[in-house]
Amino acid sequence: MALASGVRVPARALLRPWALLWGTTLGRREPAAGGGGDGERRFGSQRVLVEPDAAAGVAVMKFRNPPVNSLSLELLTELVISLEKLENDKTFRGVILTSDCPRVFSAGLDLTEMCGRNPAHYAEYWKAMQELWLRTYLSSLVLVAAINGACPAGGCVIALACDYRVLADNPKYRIGLNETLLGIIAPFWVKDAYVNTIGHRAAEQALQLGLLFPPAEALQVGLVDQVAPEDQVLSTALSEMARWLAIPDHARQLTKNMMRKATADRLLRQRDADIQNFVSFICRDSIQKSLQVYLEKLRQRKG
């Protein structure tokens, strides 16, 4: 949120929220679906399921925070832990990110994390969002997004951080950054990633209007790299992964870092200020009231 800061946040609120969870949330293991070697087991946490294929050097990471994979603090934390675990295991060279919830990749930020809480919580939440983006955007692994459902706002942010994006060919599955429709704005580092992906003019228009693109338009503007039949999104992503893994890791990783470092460094230099700006913005009475109204509409719709 690129607005002037006003609320100061204690330093302890900026500590890594997942530090206490390391080694505990990933304890459950279960046999992998569809076979695989005897040593290959799915692992994960309450909200993230990882299906490894050690022989291929690829893991499929599934978001499972029903009903719509809202990016709660817990989900953000568990995604970072899962990705870090895979990066530290030299068996794996690539990860497919996809959803375990029907018809939605991720609905984006969890608005309940941004409404009716205290400034320290808002700071912790935004720190976790920053960390997930940095972890995915700069990952040494090949990341392919298999977008098997709607992908607005924060879901689009995760997809933008990947190396390649495959979107299901369903007109209901739209992708984009629609923050302005809720009276909020995308942070500068998300804007930078958007510009890098679809160009300045297209990003300027899409961000101001809060556009969500159906598959054909998303492909045309360059927001996704491929559109596939809904039942072939994962297989298409896996096929594309093989093309990326054919490139020597060191050359690909160095090239990726060369292309992305300047964008990531801009956030790293201003990370604390970005958190303070977010907290100041989200604490405004007008923003809190807007979020409350929107959340109430969602509750009435569910009722």
Automatic annotation (TrEMBL):
GO terms for molecular function: isomerase activity. Keywords: Isomerase. CDD domains: crotonase-like (cd06558). The keyword Signal does not apply. Gene3D superfamilies: 2-enoyl-CoA Hydratase, Chain A, domain 1, 6.10.250.170. InterPro entries: ClpP/crotonase-like_dom_sf, Enoyl-CoA_hyd/isom_CS, Enoyl-CoA_hydra/iso. The keyword Isomerase applies. It comes from the Eukaryota. Belongs to the enoyl-CoA hydratase/isomerase family. This is Enoyl-CoA delta isomerase 1, mitochondrial isoform X1. The lineage of its organism: Eukaryota, Metazoa, Chordata, Craniata, Vertebrata.
